[in-house]
Amino acid sequence: MSSDEIGMIIDEVIKGPDGKPLLLPLLYKIQEKFGYISKNTAHEIAKKTKIPFSTIYGVITFYDMLYTEPKGKHIIRICNSPSCYLNNLVTLIKFLELLLNIKSGQTTKDKKISLEIVSCLGCCDKSPAMMINDQVYGNLNEHKIKKIISRLR
Amino acid sequence: MKITLNGKKIKCEEEQTILQVAKKQGIKIPTLCYSERFHPKSVCRVCLVEVNGKMMPSCSTKVKERMVIDTESQRVLKARKINTELLISEHKEHLTQTKKHELCVLAKDVGVRQTRFSTIGKIHNPNEGIGIARDDNKCILCGKCIQACEMQNVNAIDFAYRSYHTKITPAFEGRIDDSVCIHCGQCILACPVNAIYEKDSIKDVEKALKNKHVFVQTAPAVRASLGEEFGLEPGTLVTGKMVSALRKLGFKEVFDTQFGADLTIMEEATELVERVKKNKNLPMITSCCPAWIKYIEHFYPELLNHVSTCKSPHEMFGAVLKNYYIENSRIKKKNAVVVSIMPCTAKKFEAQRKELNKDVDYVLTTRELARMIKNHRINFNNLKEDNFDAPLGISSGAATLFGATGGVTEAALRTAYELETGKDLEILEFNQIRGLKNVKEGNIMINGHDLTFVVVNGLHYAKELLEQIKKGECKYDFIEVMSCPGGCIGGGGQPIPTTKEIIKKRMQALYVNDENKIIRRSYENPAIKLLYKEYLGRPLSEKAEELLHTKYTKRGI
Questions:
Q1: I need a surface site. Which of B80, B82, B206, B300 has the fewest CB within 10 A?
Q2: Which chain B residues are within 8 Å of A42, Cβ to Cβ?
Q3: Interchain CB contact of A43 with B (< 8 Å)
Q4: B 332-361 → A contacts, CB under 8 A
Q5: Range of B228's domain?
Q6: Where are the alpha helices (DSSP H) in B324-458?
Q7: What is the pLDDT of residue B103?
């Protein structure tokens, strides 16, 4: 993650009224390129854009889909909002954890799969729902999950 | 515009918030996260009122034509109580510890004695820095500290995470000392629950008092505010009582930082005259404020050559004491300990700087001194007045002004004028740079040169000046910057509360103190004259450069 690469991405992002790049699109692009936003990367952004370091950290931690640590190749995001919760979510999470042999928020040893619990995915109509990378899977049950995961591996 | 407020039809101006209108009508609405200094955030929800039957925060809701507002309905009172209880449940110590803080006052105000909600079991280690410390266990997430930090243009802390995981922290939950925090302590004054506080040095000082020869020096701003901790009116000068209290606490010799201030002026005024003559590194910027120094080291390191090389007054004092004064006495250097009583938390950081060789060992804030006096059961208000010890306790009125914004400039000009013209200045008061305005400018003719100066308090306003210097558009010769609003009298180590009105009163006290002094110009101070004659030679001499001047570090963000 060289400083030049970060500089190039900063130049690409649209600027706000104060002349600074818009932070969310910037962080999203950085993550797209590097997979996550490390402390050093965030510091580099702060230095280059003059956006306070603490603010950048605040934004990264506020959003579930921005990471400060490297994640697996596939990211499973399982929805934790009321509709999903009422539809047997807790059991499903436990099932997933057992299946992958990790706790939620962790990544498998082979760095292939990360499991995240996130806020509403907006798919309440097919709850319980989860997202794997950009794909949404709804009306989940244990059998369905097993099938989907085996395809990932 | 006409509105109905608590059943009464009243006229009010547009663009005002309900809170402002109510205040004018003499109706008190309780607040917690609100402060006149900051943009309202409406996070605490205790200023709720009923507007046309809807609950709205009065601090951020603006009045509209024909609005019907009720500030005291049963629904409002109940909501306020619940919200206060929720706030208290966030605060780990609930209401037990500090009687004085705003949340306790609020609880009393709305009639809450205890909370029925339990805390989410969050336990954090306090984040202790050299100057200030944060205890997240007490934090109720009102965000005032973030706003205070933002006002200073520092932004060392911000909210992180979401929902009940939310916390206020430096980036990546780092230590305060690793962040860009300048230790100004404005967040301490803003915090309604004492979750941020100065790092306590009382223990170290008490230990030193037992077996060392401890010297103490007190800053000008402390004498104008210490009385408040003992129930005296803001603006009461307690110089004499403070000296007696310090003696009772066991300090061997009680000196005055104002001596250091006079010395600073001798050096700084000479430096200014030199720079103007050579037209080099202008504008010259003052270096008395340690928070300001750390700020420029972080954010504008390329402008460090503009900063005066003078150490701050208490550090100059420490250097003179540990070198000159001790040489002439029987005290061994390893037994000598220097304690500074300061209105400032950044001075704690400054005292740790390597380049200053620990000339000052410990720094206590005004609040810490008050705590110490109380712990020793000294009846402060009944103490007899006492005087500082000679010779390092002798000072001029100019030095007193250091405690208020504009003071350093005023003091420096009194001396610079004499240095250049050989004549005494006739009118000593520079009214254009007195008072609480954030940016004040003026000029004075010295030997045909029109010397222009500007005085800034609050770092928000300093940033604009620094940008001007960077672009080469700055028209001033001399810039004074104090980080805290009002200067040191509004410092982060001062008694809580420190409001604008209180700052004004403290400021007035310092001006009166200056007027009552016989010596009002630094170069007339006999102790200063003797010091130069016996030891330093002249301002900016080799010896003076070695002892009284310093260098700065480029830190970056």
A1: B206
A2: 171-172
A3: yes
A4: none
A5: 202-548
A6: 326-327, 346-351, 366-375, 397-400, 407-421
A7: 85
Distances (CA, A) of B509 to A90, B230, B525: 65, 17, 21
Q: For residue B154, give the chain A residue with the closest CA.
A: A52
- Say what the ipTM of the complex is: 0.89
For residue A51, what are the domain limits? 3-62
The minimum CA-CA distance between B187 and chain A, rounded to whole Å, is 15
**What does the pLDDT average to over B318-346?**
92
How many angstroms separate the CA of residue B171 from the nearest CA in chain A? 4
| R_g of chain A computed on alpha carbons | 17
Q: Is residue A109 part of a domain?
A: yes
> Which of B146, B150, B159 should we substitute to test contact with A (largest number of A Cβ atoms within 10 Å)?
B159
Count of pairs with CB atoms under 8 A, one residue in A, one in B: 48
pLDDT value of position B96? 47
Report how many domains make up chain A. Answer: 2
- pLDDT band, residue B97 (cuts 50/70/90): very low
User: Would you say residue A134 lies in a domain?
Assistant: yes
Q: Would you say residue B119 lies in a domain? A: no
Residues A45 and A88 in one domain: no
A84 and A144: one domain? Answer: yes
Q: What are phi and psi of B550, to 5 degrees?
A: -140, 180
Average pLDDT for chain B: 91
Q: Tokens representing B195?
A: 């979750």
CB B43 within 8 A of CB B143: yes
Q: How much is the average pLDDT of B397-402?
A: 92
% of chain B residues with pLDDT over 70: 98
Residues A13 and A38 reside in one and the same domain = yes
